[in-house]
Design a protein that fits this description.
Oligomer: single chain
Distance between the termini: 59 Å
Order of helices and strands: HHEEHEHHEHHH
Low-confidence stretches: none
Structural class: mainly alpha
Strand content: under 5%
Number of helices: 8
């Protein structure tokens, strides 16, 4: 086993500064976010999603924190990260070519449905300037949920092995997803998609929470990778408990980003819902 290098002064300081920064960032975000659990979830969704009511799912009269597309996307990403965390552990290779082709198809479906939906939104909001451009079909919240889920699977399927490549001292040189695991993942995500389109409040609340946590999970993983690289700790970790500081740094940076976007957008629009002028 390689001998661990003594911690530098900067690394020692970060063990104290990062928890303090986390408290400050989280406290500031809690202060500016709307009250209640759903209000806090809304404030997370607000940083990454347009939150147009017409493009969103509802629990009774309560709008989801994320639009239908983003709900599918981040819900699927959360499920994919959880599943890979249990079955793939330190596997660090990208999926094989066949699965990558499917992921590209998922991405294209997301892009086509999103562009088609955005064109319809422009027509409804701004009228004749866009009327001559034909829509391919009528985009609905059903197509938004399913195409968003495909994108969420694609993002998490790429990010998870990249995370393992960066973090672990001895990553496992195997694909993080093989066909059986990929099939299971798609099946579970489809079940959750149908749950999101159901009328069962308990399921809808759970999906609303899970999809919002998916936002935090993705941002935290990305910023954790950035932090590890900035601190020159690539491939320096052997055990999960050693990741507490990079993970906390990633979460802190995620909340700083969310806080900054929330403040900018709210000061610009003065609403926690959609953008004024976009009728959808």
């Amino acid at each position: 086993m390689m001998e661990q290098k003594p911690a530098s002064l900067i690394q020692t300081l970060t063990k104290w500064l990062i928890p303090l920064a986390a408290i400050v960032a989280l406290g500031a975000w809690i202060y500016i976010a709307p009250p209640g659990l759903m209000g806090k979830l809304d404030a997370i969704g607000y940083a990454v999603c347009h939150r147009l009511p017409s493009h969103s799912l509802f629990i009774g009269n309560i709008q989801f924190p994320l639009c239908a597309r983003c709900t599918g996307e981040f819900n699927a990403a959360a499920i994919a990260l959880i599943l890979q965390g249990f079955i793939s552990r330190k596997k660090s290779k990208l999926p094989k070519r066949g699965i990558l082709v499917v992921l590209v198809i998922f991405f294209l479906a997301f892009a086509i449905d999103g562009s088609n939906s955005y064109l319809a939104l422009l027509k409804q909001s701004y009228g004749s300037a866009f009327m001559k451009i034909p829509n391919l079909y009528v985009t609905t919240n059903v197509t938004r949920v399913f195409t968003g889920s495909g994108m969420g699977i694609a993002m998490a399927s790429i990010l998870f092995p990249m995370f393992n490549q960066t973090i672990w001292r001895v990553p496992e040189d195997k694909p993080a997803l093989e066909w059986p695991q990929f099939g299971l993942l798609v099946f579970v995500v489809l079940l959750f998609d149908f749950g999101a389109l159901s009328n069962f409040d308990a399921i809808l609340y759970f999906i609303a929470v899970l999809s919002t946590l998916g936002v935090l999970a993705l941002l935290t993983m990305v910023f954790s990778i950035v932090w590890v690289m900035a601190m020159k700790q690539d491939n320096a970790f052997e055990h999960l408990h050693q990741l507490w500081l990079p993970a906390l740094a990633g979460l802190t940076l995620a909340f700083i980003l969310i806080l900054g976007i929330d403040l900018f957008r709210f000061n610009l629009t003065h609403t926690w819902t959609g953008f004024p002028g976009l009728t959808g």
